[in-house]
# Entry
Amino acid sequence: MTRSSPRPPVARPLIGTRIRERRLSLGRRQTEVAQRAEISAAYLNLIEHNRRPVGAGLLSRLAEALDIDATELASDHEEALVGALREAAARAADQRGITVELDQISEFAARFPGWASALAGATRRADALERRLVALSDRMTRDPYLLETLHEVQSAVTALRSTASILAETPEIEPEWRDRFHANLDSDSQRLSRTAQALVAYLDSFEDEVVPMSPQEEVEAWIAAGQPSIAEAAELASDAARVMAQDLLAAQERDRAALPDSALSAVVAEAGDTADDPAHIAARLGRPLELVLRRLGTLRPGPWAQAGLIVCDGSGAALFRHSAPGFELPRPGEGCALWPLFEALAQPQLPVARLIETTAGNRFAAWAVAERLLPMGIGAPALSRAQMLFRPSAGRDTRPVLGVGPACRICPRPGCPARHEPSILGPV
Amino acid sequence: MTATVDVLLIEDEPSIAEAVRFILSREGWRCEQWPEGNSALQRIRALAPRLVILDLMLPGRSGAEVLADLRADHALKGLPVLLLSARGLANLPQGADRILVKPFANDDLRAAVRELLG
# Structure
């Protein structure tokens, strides 16, 4: 089998989702499937979240690794074709003077499958190019990470230049000042080195087919790969990502010390039906709910095997994100204001339990609670941290359903009261 | 009123602030530093410097906002301001007497301060 393919990658909507669902249905780990398909687990994770295209050669290897026919995995059936034609029709509706015979889409696909495929493919390529253009445009003009990093480079270079000139032009400088400036040179050169490395890695990823990775995305790929040793984790290309991964490991270790694996697993196993309720588990353990949510979301014992976990700080910035099957996470820095995570953040110490539904119609039971932290003492401002645990909902859940999205920009829900920017997708 | 401070440097980067203060003090100018924008105007009023060196990107109120506040203040609107910009010369706020783009040469800093202090 050759790794290269003469055919260019084809953007197939949701192929990543199908790959993920197939893998999960077989109970296989990303690392195992990735190894068989000759790619990294991090890359497979991006594919599964529809953030990398799948070429014909890779599709074939993935299908082999998942014991499925490549055609079936690609799902190039009439149903998919008709769906793509509907998308093309929706785009055409924006152009004056074009009226598409919507009631004849199926007939068109059946009578002229070649033309229908060509139209659908052209529309998909146009969509993919448009998304890429928007993403790159966002990056270049508004990306806070890029702007902040460039400012950091400028500041470090300014400090280095001024300090080095002082040392060069002042031979009679006092030893105390000289030592201080040498220390500044050392720390600023290290800062410049770290920042430049992160910037180069970030800009390099612009050349990829889809969207570049920030340090947080690197950390998420590392989490998806099972958090291998930081020294050996290819996913962690930048120093910033390694620092974030180390901080995350330290935080998880503190949580584990406060609530060991064995204690949590034992209580979940003993809890029977009440193991479905994190508050019952917290009560049995005599531990704070916020700690129990985080531990259930990282250990994922027994009935929590498919649980997802999102932890954020008071600004809403994600500290940890692990998705559950069928729950599409947006890019780092984005989220839906209707997630129970943010409801909890607005009312610290008051837990929130909701039945939520994604735009794809997947339902999840979600629990969230926020806590107040006082790392600067009781007289100083408190910091907040919220955590949301969620897992696919059991069919018997009869609570009212709250529709949520991944993030406004990629959420098609019309009339959403929480929307803060228009969607690039059409309404549902 | 005789100013006890020649230059107030409003800059949040400690290494840059230390270097600038050293350079100016070697020229005989008395220099103080302030690291954020929210209370920068109060600090200017309290110290009554002869010149303000103002970084554009500050925590709290930005350098551009501080500059606008200063120019709108009846007592301070004539105070010379040397703006430090890490964004080049495009889209800079109005109202600065001189602009230095980071990274700058120490000689350029000395020359600009000398010109503005007269």
